[in-house]
Structure to design on (233 residues):
């Protein structure tokens, strides 16, 4: 236990939170691939924590936007929320507080640069939010998210209208010109269950406007819309 206390001391100093449940904290950094090679481990993967952390983060974001930006429309709240909690933003926040230093991965993930993988890092960040919530309280989790994810970034997104997704921009463009909406179709999906890759196309009047490839359907749709916006519609 003394080793574990020392192991996370730098992280605790960085985020100014001292954890009581050290085993729970350890689970933040256990990727499922690690357990495939350590089947007798008493530790659990961070998947359940990531699930809870995602929900806690969603509530924190909603409360923060509701309080700080009371004049925004409901649609704007949704767009801003999607922009700030997207995988890249969470991964960037995780890298800044060096969560990748503590990850336990399989040898294959290590060789495949798993410590730099945005999906893995984003999941780790959400798992940490869950542990802060469980070990402390909602208020502490709220302050952590504001300090290490929202700070400076949200105001910048709003001032520069960077929260508008390519998917929203494409829909507004097509609706304003043709009074119709584009259609997204899954063109291909492959890879193991925990590392699926999706290829999605966006169509209008049966014409392919753009394609996107990403680890989730949502991201692939966004990439397809971004490509479509480069074309003459």
């Amino acid at each position: 236990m003394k080793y574990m206390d020392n192991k996370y001391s730098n992280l605790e100093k960085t985020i100014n939170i001292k954890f009581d449940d050290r085993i729970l904290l350890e689970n933040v950094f256990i990727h499922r691939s690690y357990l495939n090679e350590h089947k007798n481990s008493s530790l659990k993967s961070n998947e359940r924590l990531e699930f809870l952390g995602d929900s806690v983060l969603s509530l924190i974001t909603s409360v923060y936007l509701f309080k700080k930006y009371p004049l925004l429309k409901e649609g704007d709240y949704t767009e801003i929320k999607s922009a700030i909690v997207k995988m890249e933003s969470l991964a960037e926040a995780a890298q800044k507080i060096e969560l990748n230093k503590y990850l336990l991965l399989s040898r294959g993930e290590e060789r495949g640069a798993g410590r730099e993988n945005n999906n893995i890092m984003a999941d780790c960040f959400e798992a940490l939010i869950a542990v802060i919530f469980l070990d402390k309280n909602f208020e502490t989790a709220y302050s952590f998210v504001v300090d290490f994810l929202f700070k400076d970034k949200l105001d910048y997104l709003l001032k520069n209208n960077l929260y508008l997704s390519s998917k929203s921009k494409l829909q507004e463009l097509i609706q304003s010109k043709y009074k119709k909406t584009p259609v997204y179709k899954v063109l291909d999906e492959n890879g193991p269950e925990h590392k699926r890759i999706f290829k999605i196309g966006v169509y209008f009047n049966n014409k392919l406007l753009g394609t996107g490839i990403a680890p989730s359907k949502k991201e692939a749709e966004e990439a397809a819309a971004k490509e479509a916006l480069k074309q003459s519609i």
Q: What stands out?
A: The first helix runs from residue 2 to 7. The chain has a mean pLDDT of 88. Residues 166-229 form a domain with the Double Stranded RNA Binding Domain fold (CATH 3.30.160.20). Strands lie at 183-190, 197-204, 207-214.
